[in-house]
Write a structure and sequence with these properties.
Length: about 180
């Protein structure tokens, strides 16, 4: 199917991941340094980045569905896309639960329980796994890219062009730096 709109998923997903990761870091800092005066600021930053990440992730999921239905792909990449989609939906749902869970905690200024931190750690693990699977779609299957670079036999494995006549500037018998 021809893409009518640009694929916004890669842009949005990076904001989502960054905000969720920052939220996790701020929650950990607030918990570890709870006796410090600036721990309250970390707590506010943790809530803010979590809620903003949850809001943007709604757009990220929507853009992901759009990409799922418009990006050209073959059978193996379709299986990988489906796997990524399933992980992404579970991951998004858990982060949305965490965001809702914190609304009550924020309003009442309750201390976050260890169970919350445990679920948060699981959510970070799911986020990393989902991100890995999304990266695989691009880097292993080439999805979402306009074209792959042309590979020439004249290019070394380091991406440096070699002279077409075979003369690479070294005298015969001399070791080449890329031969190791």
């Amino acid at each position: 199917m021809f893409e009518i709109l640009p694929n916004w998923h890669p842009l949005l997903v990076h904001f989502t991941v960054a905000l969720y990761a920052a939220s996790f870091l701020f929650f950990v800092l607030a918990r570890v340094f709870s006796g410090r005066t600036w721990a309250g600021d970390c707590r506010i930053a943790a809530f803010s980045t979590l809620w903003l990440g949850a809001a943007i992730s709604v757009l990220t999921v929507a853009a992901g569905f759009y990409a799922f239905n418009t990006v050209r792909h073959d059978a193996p990449s379709h299986a990988a896309m489906t796997d990524h989609r399933n992980w992404a939906l579970a991951t998004a749902a858990l982060w949305w639960v965490l965001a809702l869970w914190t609304i009550r905690t924020y309003r009442t200024s309750l201390e976050l329980k260890s169970s919350f931190i445990g679920v948060f750690v699981v959510a970070v693990g799911l986020l990393m796994t989902t991100g890995w699977k999304g990266g695989e779609l691009v880097y292993r299957y080439g999805l979402g890219v306009l074209s792959l670079p042309a590979v020439s036999e004249n290019n070394s494995d380091q991406g440096e062009p070699r002279p077409e006549n075979g003369d690479d500037g070294h005298e015969s018998g001399e070791e080449h730096p890329h031969d190791h």
